[in-house]
Amino acid sequence: MTQLERRIRGKKWNLLNREVINGAHAGNIFRVDVLDHKKQRGSYVYKEFATERNNEIVMYGKLTDTIEKFSKTVHVWDTAPQAILMQDLKLPVKDNYPNLTVKDKKELLSAILHKLSDLHLTNLKRSNTELPIHQINVEWRNWCLEELKKLCTTHHWAKSDWMKIIEDTYDQLSIDSYEVRSPLVLTHGDPHLENIFHYHEDIWLIDWEWAAIGSPLRDITILLQDIYDLKLINFVHNLYWKLLKGTELAIVEEGYKKDFNYLYIDHTTMMLAWEIHKYYQGYTDEDRIKEMTEFKIREISRIAKEESDH
Asked: What is the DSSP annotation of 258-282?
C-alpha cells in the first residue's frame, strides 16, 4: 500500500482512482477520486513534496488561517513524505487564457487583482518576524545569463546582445541594491497564471512556497509573466494602482511606479531563465521560446529606458 493510499484510508475515505499530473513540478502530484465517509464522491489533488522543495509546508504552518481564505487546502501532512491534499480546482487559468477575448482577459485579470489586493490588505498589519523578507539580489540575473548563454550556443537566432542587455540593466540601475518604496505586506510570491484557478466564481491560489513579506508589486509583476500583450500589461499596472489608492496601503504614485519597474525587470529576468530551462526539458517548442525570449528582452529594455529617462 502506498503512502497516498494509507493517508486516504486514514481519513476514512475509499480511493477510487488516481492519475499522475505531469509537468515541471517540485515533487509528485496526483489527481485522486475518492468516496468519503458520507459515501459522496470527491476529486482532489495530492501533492507530495521533494525533500529539498518543502518550504510550502513551512508556510502552511505559519500562515494556516490566511492561506485557508485563498486556497482550497483540505489537509497538510508535515511528516515524511510531506504532502498536502487540495480540492481539485480543475484547470489553471493559463490553460484557457490564450483563447479568451480581450474583454474576457481584462475581466479575469481584474478578478485576480482584486483577490491579490485582498491578500495584501488583509495582512497589512501582520507582524510576523518568522517570515522571510523579499529583496532583489543577483540570483535571477545570474541564472538568466547562464540560460541565455546556453541558448546562444545551440541556436543561431539567439543573440549575445541579450546577455549584455541584462548585465547593463542590472548594473546601470543597480537593480540588486534596490529598496522597495511600498509598505511591506504578505505576498504570495509566485502568482503566475499556472498557480491561479477560477473555480465556482472565485479566484484561488496554489503553491505558496515563495510566500514572503515584500512589496505588493512583487505579486503583480510575477502575474504579468504569462501576459504577452503590452496593452494588457499597462491595464494591470493602472488597475492595481487604482485598487490601492484610498486604502490603508499608503504608497505614493512615484513609489508605486518605481517598485513596479524594478520588480518587473527582476521577475521578467527570472521568468525568462525559467522558460528557457523548461524549453530544454521539452515543455516548450522552439518557435515559442524564441517568441517569449524576444518579448521579455524587449520588455526589460523598455522598462530600463523608462527608468533611465526618468
From this structure: HHHHHHHHHHHHHHHHHHHHHHHTT
- Side-chain-side CA neighbours of 159 within 13 Å: the count stands at 10
CA-based nearest residue to 290, from 155, 104, 118: 155
Q: Any idea what the Cα angle at residue 297 is, between residues 224 and 115, rounded to 5°?
A: 5
Q: What percent of the chain has pLDDT over 70?
A: 98
CA-CA distance, 192 to 264, in Å (whole number)? 13
- As given in the structure block, the three cell numbers for residue 128 are 510576523
DSSP for residue 142: H
Distances (CA, A) of 40 to 10, 12, 19, 154: 16, 12, 20, 53
Task: Give the model's pLDDT for residue 271.
Answer: 98
Q: Which of 26, 284, 271 is nearest to 144 (CA)?
A: 271
- Give pLDDT, residue 124: 57
24 CB contacts (<8 Å, ≥6 apart)? 278, 281, 283
Query: Residue 59 above 60 pLDDT?
Result: yes
Element counts in the chain: helices (H) and strands (E): 11, 9
What integer is the mean pLDDT of 140-152? 98
DSSP string, 145-212: HHHHHHHHHH-TT--THHHHHHHHHHHHHTGGG----SPPEEE-S---GGGEEEETTEEEE---TT-E
- Per-residue pLDDT at 140 exceeds 70: yes
Helix (H, G, I), strand (E, B) or coil at 96: helix
Q: What's the pLDDT band for 129 if we cut at 50, 70, 90?
A: low
